Amino acid sequence: MPAATLAPSSTTAFPPAAPPLRRRIACMLYEGVLLFGVLSASTALFLLVRPTLQKLGLDSPYAIQGWSFMVMGLYFTWFWQRSGQTLAMQTWRMRVETAGGKPPRWPQAALRYVLAWLWLPPSAALGHGLGLVKGPFVGVLCAGLLVWILLAWLDPRRQFLHDRLARTRLVDLRPPRP
């Protein structure tokens, strides 16, 4: 039987294992290091354009936050739709894919990116509701992110909630241990 006919059924019958949470967290930290450079360059570009935005009345306190959110979204969705892997994911040998084992297309990758931020609004609302500022507020945000990550333990395949909602999965590309 040709290998092409076996590949889809093997992907659906036995979905690849998800990377362990500690590897995913390490990948997220490495991703943060890489994003520091991406966001530094995009902030420099924003600051060059800012005088024009001010003249047009488009500059607001949230403009740079929206710009950064959009730049990060383009970074992630471009890599995910292209190969299923960002640079950090290549290093840690994991990939985002659809149920068919292919990288997500643009709309699905963008949906995954937006859904991955769902932990933030409830955490921020709780911090604001409690009247927290600075360190304690950041602590509530970190706790919200930790809860979001730990929700993967409730999933039988150990997938993040945003992957389930976006119909994607994170797979471990390391060879199985004997």
UniProtKB/TrEMBL annotation:
Major subcellular location class: membrane
Record bears the keyword rRNA-binding: no
Membrane topology, record value: Multi-pass membrane protein
The keyword Iron-sulfur is annotated on this UniProt entry: no
Segments traversing the membrane: 29-50, 62-80, 110-130, 136-154
Cell location: Cell membrane
InterPro entries: Pra-immunoreactive, RDD
RDD domain span: 19-166
Alphabetical UniProt keywords: Cell membrane, Membrane, Transmembrane, Transmembrane helix
One matching Pfam family: RDD
Top-level taxon of the source organism: Bacteria
Name assigned to this protein: RDD domain-containing protein
Higher taxonomy: Bacteria, Pseudomonadati, Pseudomonadota, Betaproteobacteria, Burkholderiales
